Amino acid sequence: MAGPTAAELLWGVTKAPRRGPKPSLTLDRIVAEAIALADAEGLASLSMARLAERLGCAKMALYRYVPGKSELAAVMLDTAFGPAPEVAAALPDSSEPWREYLTVWAVTAFNRYRAHPWALELTTGPRPIGPNELNWLETALAALDGSSLTGPERLDSAVLLLGHVRSLVQQVGSATEDDDMEGQLVREIGAILAAHGDSFPRVAAAFADPAEQTDPNAGRNDALRFGIDRILDGIAAYVSARK
């Protein structure tokens, strides 16, 4: 009999194996160990044999729960990313609550991707979609309820924000939320410009801009928030033009 599909695993429509002795494994345990392995060594290092070794079981025991690596990866993605931030918890008093929420939404997505950079590879192209991934989309669209945006426009707004997040994660890789990634980049480029700045005057001038020096948060993930703000500025202007 064929094993469960990725969609069946994601949406909890499968049943635990009944035959034989009481199983020592669970799907949750298998997925958690697979996530830990991918976080530590990358998705390329994940194999059913390697996972079985870490779990202390026979490789064939895993197939009672998940038929293969592709189905396992689908559940890993949905589990690792988890649900989107709650709307009520993310919204302070604001005249533009949709903007406040989508900012929190995008920053949280950025941090989730950085914690699990292998998820970038798994979130491209047609694939089985799990409940957590749909929850992220649902909450983003809910934030724009009441706007003049059509359904497709709201979808495109969420995709645009997520594209900005993904592009930055691809550049910076994995790290913790508190890492000063831009500060590190500024120091690296600064050392080069100190020796070769005359050949790149505009780059040197941009890095020496007094506005950068007077901002206490300069160099701390500003590209992320700058991009989010400009995308949301564009959405706000687009909505306002329709009124």
UniProtKB/TrEMBL annotation:
<dbReference type="InterPro" id="IPR050109">
    <property type="entry name" value="HTH-type_TetR-like_transc_reg"/>
</dbReference>
<keyword id="KW-0238">DNA-binding</keyword>
<dbReference type="InterPro" id="IPR009057">
    <property type="entry name" value="Homeodomain-like_sf"/>
</dbReference>
<dbReference type="InterPro" id="IPR004111">
    <property type="entry name" value="Repressor_TetR_C"/>
</dbReference>
<dbReference type="InterPro" id="IPR036271">
    <property type="entry name" value="Tet_transcr_reg_TetR-rel_C_sf"/>
</dbReference>
<dbReference type="InterPro" id="IPR001647">
    <property type="entry name" value="HTH_TetR"/>
</dbReference>
<feature type="domain" description="HTH tetR-type">
    <location>
        <begin position="24"/>
        <end position="84"/>
    </location>
</feature>
<protein>
    <submittedName>
        <fullName>TetR/AcrR family transcriptional regulator</fullName>
    </submittedName>
</protein>
<dbReference type="Pfam" id="PF00440">
    <property type="entry name" value="TetR_N"/>
</dbReference>
<keyword id="KW-0805">Transcription regulation</keyword>
<keyword id="KW-0804">Transcription</keyword>
<feature type="DNA-binding region" description="H-T-H motif">
    <location>
        <begin position="47"/>
        <end position="66"/>
    </location>
</feature>
<dbReference type="Pfam" id="PF02909">
    <property type="entry name" value="TetR_C_1"/>
</dbReference>
